[in-house]
Every structure is written in C-alpha cells, then in structure tokens.
Write a structure and sequence with these properties.
alpha+beta, Alpha-Beta Plaits, 5 strands, 24% strand
C-alpha cells in the first residue's frame, strides 16, 4: 500500500513539474515587417544603411535594401521598436523614407501605424 501511494505521489510530482516547465518557456517573439519607400539610389546608399543598422534602434532582426525598387525592408520586434523610430533612424542616416506597408498590408497616408511608440 505504501509503495502504491509513493508511486502515485511521484507520478503527480513529475506530471506537475512538467506542466510548470512548459509554462516557464518563453513565447516566441513576434516580429513585424515594414517596407519603406526610400531614397536608395546606389550601392553606397545600401552600404550606408547596412553598416549603420544599430542607428535604426533596438529589436532589428533583418534589414534589406533594394536599389531597383527604391525600398528598404525591416524585420523588427514591435516590443522594442516602432515604425516611427526606424524612420527616424533612417533619417539620421540622411535616407528619406516613408512607410509603405506593414506585414504586407499597405499603409494609407495619415493613418496611425499600429506599432508606433514614443
């Protein structure tokens, strides 16, 4: 009888511990992709952006600049950065940029961006 009680208690402890471990695992971080219409006309512009990614702010996961399309695409963590901050970072590099789309959805002029933070 004692062995069955001990076995049942052990089973409960193992099952409960597994649940606690699952609850403590961090959630996957959500990322947002913003595409800017940008004044990117040559490879020097691309190099300037790529060499100064930290000036775009925290949470940047990926940056791509396309001279042919005149676009800069930025993948970022919205908990650490915003479209507005990234635009200011590009402006600090003297790259004129206007947000064009957010996660594949076009942005209308004058609309507040859902990831804007001050």
């Amino acid at each position: 009888m004692k062995r069955m009680t001990m076995a049942a208690l052990m089973l409960l402890l193992v099952a409960g511990g597994t649940t606690v471990l699952r609850a403590r695992q961090p959630e996957r971080k959500k990322t947002v992709t913003v595409v800017f219409d940008a004044d990117v006309t040559c490879e020097n512009c691309v190099r300037k952006i790529m060499n100064n990614v930290p000036s775009l702010g925290r949470g940047i996961r990926d940056v791509r600049a396309d001279v042919g399309k005149g676009e800069v695409t930025v993948l970022f963590d919205p908990a650490k950065n915003s479209v507005e901050r990234i635009a200011r970072g590009l402006a600090s590099l003297r790259v004129e940029a206007e947000p064009k789309s957010l996660d594949g959805r076009p942005l209308s002029d004058g609309a507040q961006h859902p990831t804007e933070r001050e």
